[in-house]
Amino acid sequence: MKWFGRAACLMLIAGAVHATPIDTYEFKSQENKERGLQLANELRCPQCQNQNLIDSNSPVARDLRLKVYAMVDEGKSNDEIVTYMTDRYGDFVRYRPAFDNRTLVLWLGPVAFAVIGLGVGLLFVRSQRQKGAKVAANISDADRERLAKVLKEKQGQ
């Protein structure tokens, strides 16, 4: 029974000791640090569903973070870094994909749906107004006289 207590104690200590590694990258300047962190926030982890490189704990995201930091310190421009990442991992790594032939539907699709929806809505309203006008035109003379009489009574009150 004595060994059971020791094993339980060791397991508790081992669980407490487990920690996630922290990136300890030293940038050459504060500007590089700010630019590196901004780029890592704008790039999506290719392994995760919808996390940027900063928020993701996956090994792939860690490697890409460090690669972005190193490229920033090498003096590469933001466009060069983003081009490197998209060439290697595709447009998925960008939260805001470039406007080109491949992403045309992505950018113009919502506008097209809005225009189509507005057109359908206008046609519906127009048809409802035409139906209302036809119903008003089909009222008999007797019904018109009764309606006029009811309106006069309401105004007199």
Automatic annotation (TrEMBL):
Domain CcmH/CycL/Ccl2/NrfF N-terminal: 9-151
Entry keywords, A to Z: Heme, Iron, Lyase, Membrane, Metal-binding, Signal, Transmembrane, Transmembrane helix
A Gene Ontology term for the protein's cellular component: plasma membrane
GO molecular function: lyase activity; metal ion binding
Origin: domain of life: Bacteria
TM regions (residue ranges): 104-125
Similarity section: Belongs to the CcmH/CycL/Ccl2/NrfF family.
Entry function: Possible subunit of a heme lyase.
Protein name from the UniProt record: Formate-dependent nitrite reductase complex subunit
Source organism (scientific name): Ferrimonas sediminicola
Gene: nrfF
